[in-house]
Amino acid sequence: MKKVHDDINFSEMTTILQKIQYASLYSLGATIRFLGTKITYSIADFLAFFAWHILQKRKKLTICSIAEHLHIGIYDAKKIAYKSFQSTFRSFCEIGLTKDFGIELTGKKLFIADENLWKRFRECEKPIVAATGHYGSWELLASLLGQVFPEERPRMVVVRKYPNPAVQQFIANQREARGASMIGHRAVATSVLRALRKNGLVAFLIDHKSLSHESYIIPFLGENARVNIGPALLAVRAESLIWPIFLERKNNGYLLHLQEPLDTKTLEGTSEQKIKMAATFYTKAMEKQILHNPEQWFWMHNRWDKKY
Question: pTM for the complete prediction?
Fold first, then answer.
């Protein structure tokens, strides 16, 4: 497993500007870590307040999307939308808190919604595709997943890479601080299959739009959406479990939600049918978690590619 150090590494930087950007981000991350959760969340809420009044197109999209897909009035949709803005900015700021978040906080700031499922998850010796999304504290969840199994067992999180090397290196260092390896979402099949065949854990964010040739059309919150089939395809090939998992902010701590897993080895039908069943499974799981607490999902993302 790749060792990540706290010291600044300019090896990937090719220009003076990128070095300055990386140093600035590094300093920002260190500042967030120093300030701690409470002050960081206050700053995030302050940024969300300004974004709410400045990003009018995003605001309108968020409100309309919530009203349409939750079947509620505009007044209630506005309240949820504002909370969603706050949650999103808290999520962005949490990248600086990953180094101080781990299993050692269980019972203090980290709480488990279903202890039996958590025990089964920790004791599972089969390959696991962890299905999660842009919900709650997804950055802290990535940090947590790096700690759930021994070092010899692969722990990997598939993410979108940033084109700016400075931003990419900073975020990768933060996310990998507690043991998980980050891998770009393009051309990951070989690495992911290798990890799963070693009974590893590979986490995917499954709630973003995908290109037409990478997706199936599946109902999501009452409307058809393009759903990424990559996690389903790899899970079926490796005969792994698909285990929905989410980290929700709750009062002054975090509540870890797990849902019952799907064992892809038990699926019947053609390969394509199995893949679609698996993709439908984690889409339904994502939907269930959003309906549980819609305030903590990333609604400002134009998930259905609509114009309001």
Answer: 0.91
